[in-house]
Amino acid sequence: MKRLLGVALGILTAIGGFVDIGDLVTNAVVGSRFGLSLIWVVGVGVVGICLFANMSGRVAAVSGRATFEVIRERLGPRAGLANLGASFFINLMTVTAEIGGIALALQLVTSIHHLLWIPVGAFAVWLVIWRVRFKIMENVAGLLGLCLVVFGVALFLLQPDWGQLAGQAMAPAVPQTESAAVYWFYAIALFGAAMTPYEVFFFSSGAVEEGWKVKDLVQSRINVLAGFPLGGLLSVAIAGCAAVVLLPAGIEVTSLSQIVLPVAEAGGKLALALALIGILAATFGAALETTLSSGYTLAQFFGWSWGKFRRPVRAARFHLSMIICLVVAIGVLATGADPILITEYSVVFSAVALPLTYLPILIVANDPQYMGKHVNSRAVNLAANVYLVIILVASLAAIPLLIITGAGA
Amino acid sequence: MILTDVLGSRVLNSEGDLLGRVADARFVLDQPPGQLLAGARLQGLIVSPHSAGSFMGYERNDVTRPWPIAQILKWWHRGSFLVLWEDIEIMGPETVRLREGFTAYHPGLQGAGPGQAPQR
């Protein structure tokens, strides 16, 4: 019974924890401009993140060490640095975007300008990282994030023309109002949002924090394979709401209030309140995860002691580096840069960095010295190879498309 | 001199012909026990004619997965060899010069230990 509860809790937190500011913004923007004609990308991204998160969770459970530690040790400092450099930069950008997201959500609730909420949000993130136990932190943020289910409910309440939505989703085509370049630019952004690199680093370091062993592999696989796709459905619901309300009205998403507009229209104040709690929990949870990921990757590269299972005094550099990351994020946001815009750029750049993140994971998941008999199966390797090709194409196309389309304008 | 100074250095034979670049250094843990591990002794350098990049773990002969990444990395480092410390004449900051009549060993590792089958 206890085990069953553990599995259920794991799935629920995986669902609630899947969506972050990148998914929220990108899905709403895409829904408001392309309807559901890009929704297939969410599917491609979710399968990809399941594949690689599962791999990196397995590395952590079998070897007892975080994936990035193994990468640093096996692939050497130069390959490790390439991986760190790419993912850390994206990570820092994502931290900034998430903290901006927290501030925007609080602005919607209180009408106090988001610039004033930024230091408060960052401080709260730091406090939780410093004080709260890993498991509690994960579960509370994940469960509250489930409030985002209200987007799915809202989609039903809006009573859309399901045939038309299904038509857009099943037979994707570039809308007449948009160019092919813009379509593919947003395809890459959506892919980057679903496969953000921090998720795998956080997942494997979290496995070490929670002390996973080989016997926990089944549970971790269920969490990923059930939780992430259901979380992906939340993304689809967000895009669907935007497609039903914002697309016909010709509203382009440039702020958080537009993202929640369909929910308010469908379900009134109560639904709006739930959506705001969900967004706050999702961005706050993701801010915790990205901040921790920054600390994890830095500490694991340089060989510092790390982890929330140690008291801060025993992992001083780990905690200090996270504080510096938060201060940098505050500094960037204090310039008045639009958090929504930062988010849009962060998902595109994360697509650029993906090959450097995911190729090393594939290599170490195949290393018999660490993995014993738990190395990747042939089927997983085949799928991973297919994904590496997709990732490489997306990565190479991202910057040219960013320039050609003027960031999707 | 630290290892970073040596990695990537050009490797010349005694006549001054370029053989490749230093891709890796190989150590043997056979010294008296230290704090964490036994003391390490430099066995030799791995010279790769095409790239000074990392072997990514594929210097071990029994690691052949995942296809095609393992094969690509092995091909990348084709023709690489191990020269023992005794065969190194000068280990300078920019170039490494080998002694006349040095022996080029196969760079592959069998299991956890070093493989030393003569190659040429």
Automatic annotation (TrEMBL), chain A:
It comes from the Bacteria. GO terms for biological process: iron ion transmembrane transport. The keyword rRNA processing does not apply. Signal peptide: none annotated. It comes from Arthrobacter cupressi. Its main location: membrane. GO terms for cellular component: plasma membrane. The lineage of its organism: Bacteria, Bacillati, Actinomycetota, Actinomycetes, Micrococcales. This is Mn2+ and Fe2+ transporters of the NRAMP family.
UniProtKB/TrEMBL annotation, chain B:
This is PRC-barrel domain-containing protein.
